[in-house]
Amino acid sequence: MWHRLFRLLALALALAPLAPASDSATVAGLWSFDEAEGQRTAADLGPDGLRGTVGAEVGTGVVHEGAIAYRFPEVAPNSPPVRPEHLVTVPHSGRLDPGDGRFAVTVRFRTTTAPSNIVQKGQHPAEGGYWKVEQDDGIVRCMFMDDGGRGVSASSTGRIDDGRWHTVLCVRSPSEVTLSVDGGQPVRVTGATGPIANSWPMTVGGKPRCDQKWVGCDYFSGDVDLVRVEKE
């Protein structure tokens, strides 16, 4: 009974601060990360059931301030060894690609370490481009890069590595990228990117292809409570 109440409370807390990217946006994927301890499948509450695989190193059923979340243990983000078990991996779906339209990613997380990649689909130099939400020295940033190497990114004006829950909303339109933290005033960066569509999985917690020598894995340390993808 208590577990069910915690799940409902966590979902309510996760969804409360969210605003749709636009009136015509639809949910492409919604992972509330409220599975019980030991579960290795991340359920998608969106319409397509894009379930993810939870790496053995990721803790599930972690409760913090009423929210149930996944815990990514503290590791050196770019030092050997490679740790694929540190990731949550959602197989490729075109629903998770921005294409050439409006696209939004929301992530709710808490951390005290930097730098790291929080969630992404693709990585440099992925054919078809890529998108990611990352944080470096406490500043959270969202980036969208098209197949031609044109990238637009927006960064927060304040630090988020204070161990508190933060909800970050990144929106890419054909003409700009916006980022807002905890429902605050969005940062807007004008710039056009072409279509973004790759065949990579979406990963939470770091890069899926890295060797910690030539390509750092940028592993995330902290808790993630929710990832939501919307598109038109």
Q: What can you see in these coordinates?
A:
With 232 residues, this protein is mainly β. The chain has one domain (2-231): Jelly Rolls. 6% of the residues lie in helices and 39% in strands. It contains one helix and 16 strands. It has one helix at residues 2-15; strands spanning 26-31, 41-42, 52-54, 59-64, 67-72, 88-90, 103-110, 116-121, 130-136, 139-145, 151-155, 166-173, 176-181, 187-190, 202-204, 222-231. The strands form two sheets. Strands 1, 4, 5, 7, 12, 13, 14 and 16 form an eight-stranded antiparallel sheet that branches. Strands 2-3-6-15-8-9-10-11 form an eight-stranded antiparallel sheet, with no helix packed on it. A hairpin with a 2-residue loop joins β9 and β10 (139-145).
Short description:
Helix content is 6%, strand content 39%. It contains one helix and 16 strands.
Write the layout of secondary structure elements.
Blueprint: H1 2-15, E1 26-31, E2 41-42, E3 52-54, E4 59-64, E5 67-72, E6 88-90, E7 103-110, E8 116-121, E9 130-136, E10 139-145, E11 151-155, E12 166-173, E13 176-181, E14 187-190, E15 202-204, E16 222-231
Antiparallel strand pairs: 1-16, 2-3, 3-6, 4-5, 5-16, 6-15, 7-12, 7-16, 8-9, 8-15, 9-10, 10-11, 12-13, 13-14
